[in-house]
Amino acid sequence: MSVTPVKNSSLSKKDQVAGMFNNIARRYDFLNHLLSLGVDHYWRWRTISIMKKENPKLILDVATGTGALALSAVKLNPDKIFGVDISEDMLAIGRAKIKAKKLTEKIELFEGDSENLIFSNDKFDAVMVAFGVRNFENLLKGLQEFHRVLKPGKMAFVLEFSHPENKIIKSVYRFYSSRILPVLGKKISKNETAYQYLHDSVEAFPSGDDFLNILKQAGFRETKSTSLTFGVVTVYTGRK
Predict the structure, then answer these.
(1) In a domain, 44, yes or no
(2) If 0-12 CB within 10 Å is exposed, 13-18 middle and 19+ buried, where does residue 142 land?
(3) Structural domain of 193
(4) Per-residue pLDDT at 35
(5) In CATH, what number is assigned to the domain containing residue 180?
(6) Minimal CB count within 10 Å: which of 14, 23, 37, 188?
(7) 3 close to 17: Cβ distance less than 8 angstroms
């Protein structure tokens, strides 16, 4: 069953997700840092470190949000980074950050649907996404779009929350994500459902080998997972 931000809503998951992120955009970066205890910086750094050996020159950042992963990827010295997201309010914050860092020639953000990408076939040297694929209405279709826009032989990089295997870590993490995170998130973001949805969507999302199998269904080979922070998050990779 698909997990949506608002239960019993007549809106599609895609429309609900766009509305949710528009609503919390102003507080999103602050909450990311606070609720992850600052570890989100490390997660993005590790993802970019894994990408480094591929030396991508044209990069697509899917579900770019406020552009955090795109900005992290600048250290790879690509020719250009394109970002796409369905939330215009998140993109507005991302564009302001890019402008402040004088990177408007390097990074360009577009409003668009991650499951129906506006780009041509075989265009990018790398496709990356951080904490976005859980929000896809059709996960397989979204990953197939990654595959379509990648050049042959190039790779996709997916950073996503996962399920820790260690029983103690899993217990502590579930307590935090189910009891503390939704309360703090609701109080600070002023959004009734966003951080409960975060917990619910992580719980329902296929992780580990289950996600690798979906990558393979989407056409990827050489699929691999790299667990970070005791399995709280995972970087998945696959080659076209």
Answers:
(1) yes
(2) buried
(3) 13-239
(4) 86
(5) 3.40.50.150
(6) 37
(7) no
Would the CA dihedral through 105, 91, 162, 158 be positive or negative?
A: negative
For the chain, what is the largest distance between any 2 Cα atoms, rounded to a whole number of angstroms?
47
**Does residue 125 lie in a domain region?**
yes
d(C-alpha 83, C-alpha 155), whole Å:
16
- Label residue 168 exposed, middle or buried (CB < 10 Å: 0-12, 13-18, 19+): exposed
Q: Is the pTM of this model over 0.90?
A: yes
Whole-angstrom distance, CA of residue 19 vs CA of residue 31: 17
Which tens digits make up the pLDDT trace of 50-74? Answer: 999 999 999 999 999 999 999 999 9
194's CB contacts (< 8 A; 6+ apart) are 5, 20, 23, 24, 185, 186
Count of domains observed in the chain: 1
What the block records as the tokens of 171 is: 């217990």
Residue 4, domain member (yes or no): no
pLDDT digit string, tens, across residues 70-113: 999 999 999 999 999 999 999 999 999 999 999 999 999 999 99
CA distance 188 to 186: 6
User: Exposed/middle/buried for 235, CB within 10 Å: 0-12, 13-18, 19+?
Assistant: buried
Q: Which residues have C-beta within 8 Å of that of residue 179, sequence separation ≥ 6?
A: none
What's the CA gap between 108 and 70, in Å, rounded?
A: 9
